[in-house]
Design goal:
2 domains, Sugar ABC transporter permease, cell membrane, transport, MetI-like fold, mainly alpha, MetI-like_sf, membrane, flat, two-stranded antiparallel sheet
């Protein structure tokens, strides 16, 4: 073979070897692939459950929002009719109004009360553990049971609260049957039920604040209010953001206390979006309208959460 042919043969052989070396993964690449496969294998159960209980229901509900279906007859495509009927329904607008009223009142109330209780309890020393336990009891107690207890407490004639008010000469209202007071009754129960959860989050946040900041404030002669506004609240900004977003989502999802205590009454004065979804689906058997309402509710919660995060993000210091 000629010299040029020999060179060509060597070049061809080296190209072949380079191609084969690229095709066959190295040990390092193989280990990376093995780690990735093992990671996905560990994530698989969670991903499967997430797909079954969230992704599939969300997609199916989105499809049903354009259908007319009563769980018995065949589905019929109706386009945007479900959304149009909701927007022309006064009950929908009343439910949306009640939802926002409940959220606007309960979210600030639970955050402020929980923060003040956390600061107070943490200043008590060893006995603070007892108060943490007592304040967290409503959170872990069954909502159905506590709601039934509150129904008896708020009874218009024989309720303990009205009897206590009568002792001081105040005629208590018919809390749960008066449209003017029914929503406020639920607000009271909602704040009592959820303040313990926010309280625990704030307690955890307080433990993460450097004690030297308070010692420096004491040296400068700062009072309790000054330390609260200049140290505690700014240092709790990440906790405040988390508590705010979670509280808003939780307040928009209120259902159980309404289902037990008022069933949306009287005269839809306590009806909220989530409870209306339940009514449309399981009382009126209009799955299409229920799914359309669920989509509207999802969009509202998503927008509110994004707006809150964007507004609070600039004031949050990590």
């Amino acid at each position: 073979m000629s010299r040029g042919g020999t060179v060509l043969s060597l070049e061809t052989t080296s190209d072949t070897l380079n191609t084969n070396s690229k095709a066959v993964p190295t040990k390092k690449q193989f280990k990376k692939l093995q780690k990735a496969a093992w990671a996905y294998a560990l994530l698989a159960p969670a991903l499967i459950l997430y797909s079954i209980f969230f992704i599939f229901p969300f997609i199916f509900s989105s499809i049903l929002s354009f259908m007319q279906w009563n769980l018995i007859s065949d589905m019929q495509f109706v386009g945007l009719d479900n959304f149009k009927s909701l927007f022309s329904d006064p009950v929908f607008w009343k439910s949306m109004k009640n939802t926002f009223i409940y959220a606007i009142v309960t979210v600030p109330a639970t955050m402020i009360i929980a923060l003040l209780l956390a600061v107070l309890v943490e200043s008590l020393g060893k006995i603070s553990e007892l108060y943490r336990f007592l304040l967290f009891i409503p959170v872990v107690t069954s909502t159905a049971i506590t709601s039934i207890i509150w129904v008896h407490l708020l009874h218009g004639n024989n309720g303990i609260i009205n009897q206590l008010l009568a002792i001081v000469g105040i005629s208590g209202p018919n809390w749960l049957n008066d449209p003017k007071w029914a929503m406020w009754s639920l607000v009271i129960v909602g704040v009592w039920k959820t303040v313990g959860y926010n309280f625990i989050l704030y307690v955890a946040g307080l433990k993460g604040i450097d004690k030297q900041l308070y010692e420096a404030a004491d040296i400068d002669g700062a009072g309790k209010w000054r330390k609260l506004t200049s140290i505690t609240i700014p240092m709790l900004s990440p906790v405040n953001l988390f508590v705010l977003v979670v509280s808003i989502i939780h307040s928009f999802q209120v259902f159980d206390i309404i289902s037990v205590m008022t069933q949306g009454g009287p005269n839809n004065s306590t009806n909220v979006l989530v409870y209306q979804v339940y009514q449309e689906a399981f009382q009126f058997f209009d799955i299409g309208r229920a799914s359309a309402l669920s989509m509207i509710f999802f969009i509202i919660v998503l927008i509110v959460a994004i707006v809150q995060i964007r507004l609070m993000e600039s004031k949050t210091h990590y």
